[in-house]
């Protein structure tokens, strides 16, 4: 029985906590959040202990693993503290917005032999995982091109955007990870465009709402990513992997399969499932299962801090490419 | 070069005439229609001779084959006249509305060794033909169930309906032929329901606008047919063949492949292609090619008068089933 | 907090018990099953009490509601016992295989003012429910035709089939309920065919493996149902509701959305989800939620014993139609 | 009646010639090709005159318009000769591989008031045209991103590739035109990657077989294009236009709509239609209709030499971007 504490009782912490409870070989021991009643309310609902002190929670002897769902700027210190106490860690992305800090953290974790998994949930989506298995099984032959469409249903609140680190580090970072997941090679060059087509005032933060990125690996494999902060029809999440023997794709998810035929249209389907908590509900559950299995079995972490570092590096390169108009070497 | 005359310069005659012109190894010699300017106008457009006399046209020495697209009650006499003069015939369905007259005509044609093909155009639709090839190739194993959806886009004019012979003989007759085409066995029992849900005044003709039929073969294969005189979304033509090894299906056709995604709906497609002249344009073309090929090569007719007779018999059985509430033996 | 006991610890009882646990406003108190360790094992896994005595479990004061998932021939007596003790009941279908016994039970329950819901799970499938909402909202106008495709992935074990009551009462009964759910009128006439195309030895039980049924309501609405005991591509569950203003349809479910494109084929998707426990997992959960809500709120039962009675009657009529070759009046 | 000559009796000339014949208000007068029997054979089949001399054919008094389907390096001189004789011209793409020569030709044509249409056939594809109409009608709101997938079914013969001008000028040039067609703004910046993943020996020509391009307009609209010389599943032609109010997409075409369901897969469809002559048959026909209509009505040319010039310029920019690793200003 894996004994788990969840740090952070917000939206993402709640998801992780519920998945710990639902996992029959794990036990949710405590939830820690320094802000107000968040931990207490969540703990009550999930029948576990609550704390205002993440550090003290990490240090409990009856905790084997911690899940970090706190604000980004606390990730590194909490992660290192947990690692220093021998706890396994599942940490939300990004590790940090500053790659220098991230590199130092990665080095520390490696030195300490820390067991840290980065929470790139999309890798655990059943369809994304099926695409990767198809690639691994050679179904597309050699991968030539990866096309990623990644669009949020609506602009996040201004306050959130102000501290998000920008669209590349906050949103596209998931797609950079998926690019690496499907390419199975490191991108070595990045080209990007950034526009403000939804909210021109994003210029205030030096941010964009509509971006396109191209990646290239040393062997010449190519990846395209398009992101928008606002797809009115819902949360658009599509992957297409094209290679010498064909291609594999996924589809978006909807709440039902109903199709409507009327005088003016046929095959009318619902808008897409909205938003990541619902769309990737299965992925979050399977992500924790993979983490728990790796911790219990002492196996390799399914996603590493190095993966988190690489995705952030690609995000930084994309931003640099937008600003310079050059292809940026990774 | 096959020398062809088209009898009947209406909607269906025009289609056939144009396909003769487009066929590189056939020549449209003449169009005959006793009514007004129809033949002259069509002949002018297609650059051939016009006549008001179908009989004289049949008898021309420079005609090898005739296509009969005249009113139903003239089919038998024209067909027999053409056969008696040694002309090959492609005749529109139905042969006649009276099965006694049909049986006599079939006997006469057989006695004379007549070369007559019945124009069940749907067999030549590329997708329907592909379904049949898949069945023949064993892709569905033993056929167990055939599901046919066949709905017109809108009620025909009252005047047409009054002389149509009723929905089973006029419209479902195509589906009875498709049932036989896909079952590859003769139905031996028919059950049917008929309703007037679109136009209750059809009771005046003893006709229906919404019907369901079930067919059974001696070996137990089953077929369902549903017909409606009015599908507001367009001309609905679907076949599904289910068997021991799986199933094969076709889809409807639309003019374009455009799909629309908006705030309220996704994957919105156009209404279906409308109506049979457009939907089955390829089928009409391929039907004539098959006829021309059979005539030139002296091969067996792809669809026979016996096929036309069987479809009419099933239509009669369906009507009897509606009226008696019994399964009717074919 | 609704206090629930589950009677029957088999496949279907396990599903219901897990849904009670997952429902945040219900409590699973006990599981009862007279056979061996079944109740004990399930109770252990779900952390509740176990019993070998369903009757004693019904009689517990700390039980508000019972879910009956025992063999069919015990349904009536357990249901009536629970009703007589004032317990709410969620009972698996069918009520009984004998309509005389069912009619008596319905009368008894009505006399006692019993609160019994019949477990026609498909009504709670999100897509089926969406179809019904669309009908209720007038999206298809007046319903004219309902087409139901319902195929199991494979023949049940011979032992199961021997006591199933036959395909109409065991399998098609779900489709009869869906027919009533979508038609929103009582069928008054039934026509049916039954064949043995998968296993001819079913003749021994007077049973069939491949059936087609047609239903008609007083106003002329029509419904077609096709069932097969063996669809090699998985559990096929499709509904199509056609009316004066268009149609609405659902699609089957698969585990992922992956599509494969190769040299020989495109858009290749997985086989269908298999079998009802997996395919209708959401439906079972929502069914219990609807039951719990009705019990707690003292509202009307979402599905009644009368619904169960009508579906059985249609099954009996279908069998009679197969045997007599007549349309059978309901 | 528009009197037309076709110059060039190869694959593309044959298509155009057949479309002239099929057009009821045009007349195919002559086909000219200096090489061997090509013109004679084609003219015989289409019942028109043949010539070995394109120049003399242009100069005939009974010719109103010429269609140029000759080798690329003859386009400019034939086009200018025709313009100087007052003939309308439909010229295959590209105008020339050398932008300097193209700019001079455009200037000459403008000076002479020449009536020249460039044959970007894809604009006339019914689905592409429907996408453009949807954009024009505001259905996607402001266009934000255009995604173009454009993959040939197989590598062209080495000899063809050697003189093609490279993938950007030969193949992607169509996609550059579609980008402009859908963006409705001029791209001002180009970023591109080029790889040799199918045939490394293309390095000999400085050519690529797998490319990705990003375009940006002054207002920040973005376009992605991916091309491959070899999609084993067929000729892949997809457009997706995303904007503030939603998106519109097209699908690929197949010869039939058949779908197969087996034990191991469902919804299995055919490979895509192959290759451009078949896939874009409707587009070629409608392209000529649009040309004929513009000539007869003295209306503006639907596609101009300026359009051809811009597409070539984007191709040159893409190549420069690959070679320099910079975004290239148009």
Automatic annotation (TrEMBL), chains A, B, C, D:
<dbReference type="GO" id="GO:0050112">
    <property type="term" value="F:inositol 2-dehydrogenase (NAD+) activity"/>
</dbReference>
<dbReference type="InterPro" id="IPR004104">
    <property type="entry name" value="Gfo/Idh/MocA-like_OxRdtase_C"/>
</dbReference>
<keyword id="KW-0560">Oxidoreductase</keyword>
<comment type="similarity">
    <text>Belongs to the Gfo/Idh/MocA family.</text>
</comment>
<dbReference type="InterPro" id="IPR000683">
    <property type="entry name" value="Gfo/Idh/MocA-like_OxRdtase_N"/>
</dbReference>
<dbReference type="GO" id="GO:0000166">
    <property type="term" value="F:nucleotide binding"/>
</dbReference>
<dbReference type="InterPro" id="IPR036291">
    <property type="entry name" value="NAD(P)-bd_dom_sf"/>
</dbReference>
<feature type="domain" description="Gfo/Idh/MocA-like oxidoreductase N-terminal">
    <location>
        <begin position="2"/>
        <end position="119"/>
    </location>
</feature>
<protein>
    <submittedName>
        <fullName>Inositol 2-dehydrogenase</fullName>
        <ecNumber>1.1.1.18</ecNumber>
    </submittedName>
</protein>
<dbReference type="Pfam" id="PF01408">
    <property type="entry name" value="GFO_IDH_MocA"/>
</dbReference>
<dbReference type="Pfam" id="PF02894">
    <property type="entry name" value="GFO_IDH_MocA_C"/>
</dbReference>
<feature type="domain" description="Gfo/Idh/MocA-like oxidoreductase C-terminal">
    <location>
        <begin position="132"/>
        <end position="330"/>
    </location>
</feature>
<dbReference type="InterPro" id="IPR030827">
    <property type="entry name" value="Myo_inos_IolG"/>
</dbReference>
């Amino acid at each position: 029985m894996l004994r788990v504490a969840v740090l952070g009782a917000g939206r993402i912490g709640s998801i992780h906590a519920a998945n710990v409870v639902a996992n029959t070989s794990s036990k949710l021991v405590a939830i820690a959040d320094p802000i107000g009643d968040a931990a207490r309310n969540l703990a009550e609902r999930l029948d576990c202990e609550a704390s205002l002190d993440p550090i003290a929670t990490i240090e409990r002897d009856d905790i084997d693993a911690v899940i970090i769902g706190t604000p980004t700027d606390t990730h590194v210190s909490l992660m290192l503290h947990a690692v220093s106490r021998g706890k396994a860690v599942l940490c939300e992305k990004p590790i940090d917005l500053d790659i220098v800090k991230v590199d130092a953290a990665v080095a520390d974790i490696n030195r300490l032999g820390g067991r840290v998994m980065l929470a790139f949930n999309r890798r655990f989506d059943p369809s994304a995982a099926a695409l990767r298995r198809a690639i691994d099984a050679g179904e597309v032959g050699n991968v030539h091109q990866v096309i990623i469409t990644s669009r949020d249903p609506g602009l996040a609140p201004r306050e959130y955007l102000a501290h998000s680190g920008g669209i590349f580090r906050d949103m596209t970072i998931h797609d950079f990870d998926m690019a690496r997941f499907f390419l199975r090679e490191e991108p070595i060059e990045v080209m990007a465009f950034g526009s403000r087509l939804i909210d021109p005032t994003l210029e205030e933060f030096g941010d964009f709402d509509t971006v396109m990125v191209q990646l290239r690996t040393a062997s010449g494999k190519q990846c395209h990513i398009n992101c928008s902060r606002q797809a009115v029809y819902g949360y658009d999440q599509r992957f297409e992997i094209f290679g010498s023997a064909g291609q594999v794709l996924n589809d978006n998810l909807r709440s039902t399969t109903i199709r409507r035929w009327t005088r003016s249209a046929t095959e009318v389907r619902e808008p897409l499932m909205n938003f990541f908590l619902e769309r990737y509900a299965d992925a979050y559950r399977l992500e924790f299962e993979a983490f728990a299995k790796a911790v219990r079995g002492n196996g390799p972490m399914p996603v590493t801090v190095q993966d988190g570092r690489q995705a952030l590096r690609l995000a930084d390169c994309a931003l640099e490419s937008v600003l310079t108009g050059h292809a940026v070497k990774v």
